[in-house]
Amino acid sequence: MKRVTLFLGHYGSGKTNIALNYAKYLKSKDLPVAIADLDIVNPYFRTKDSQQELKRLGIELVSLEFAGSNVDLPALPSAAYGLVQRNDRYVVMDIGGDDRGAYALGRYVPYILEENDYEMLFVTNFYRPLTRTVEDTIEVMREIEAAARMKFTGIVNNSNIGEITSPQDVIDTFPIAHQLSLETGLPVKMTCVEQRIADLIECENLFSLKLQKKPF
Fold first, then answer.
1. pTM for the structure as a whole
2. Which of 73, 87, 99, 169 has the fewest CB atoms below 10 angstroms from its CB?
3. CB under 8 Å, gap of 24 or more: what pairs does 178-182 form?
4. What are the helix (H) ranges across 149-189?
5. Does domain 4-209 have CATH number 3.30.420.40?
6. What is the pLDDT of residues 95-130, one digit of tens each?
7. Which of 180, 185, 183 is nearest to 157 (CA)?
8. The sheet that has 60-63: what strands, in order across it?
9. Are residues 59 and 24 in contact, defined by beta-carbon separation less than 8 angstroms?
10. Closest CA to 54 of 84, 87, 88, 20
11. What is the DSSP letter of 160?
């Protein structure tokens, strides 16, 4: 486990759910944890919606000012600088979708690279329209890397079709995830599945998710 873990990916790939679950996983290991919501793209499905649960668990939350409101361009939180500059806690960062969201990471990059204790994970759902093939997925990855000015260190397979996802739906994406790993040279760090089907799937690095409830 690296001190800083960043989740980026295509819009709607499930980064927020994964970031929340990963922060809670780290906390279950009795580690000091903070989560930063830097998603400037999607104002509807926010880490901030789990604020009370995070507070109860003792997980620090840094979120965009006016997150969840109707402000078009929320200000990036200055408190996030402290998370990447200090090394007294593990930090999970939920970054906005696509290259547009990745630009928000830019101002924190020098501090992250200087410490060099991070994972930058590409979250993909192979059932989403723009990431159905390896070629299309790599194109999205490269666009995000260029915007973030950092390279991915691993892949998160979060392929699903919502509440009707079956174990076989997840298993069917293993070959494309493997091919993506081969062509990029990046390991598949996690295969994420909803709790209700986690026991029905066998694979390396399986990560069970408790889904965040939308506030509407």
1. 0.89
2. 73
3. 179/134, 180/124, 180/134, 180/137, 180/138, 180/155, 181/155
4. 167-171, 174-184
5. no
6. 876 677 787 787 889 999 999 999 999 999 999 999
7. 180
8. 60-63, 33-38, 90-95, 4-9, 118-124, 154-157, 188-194, 206-209
9. yes
10. 20
11. -
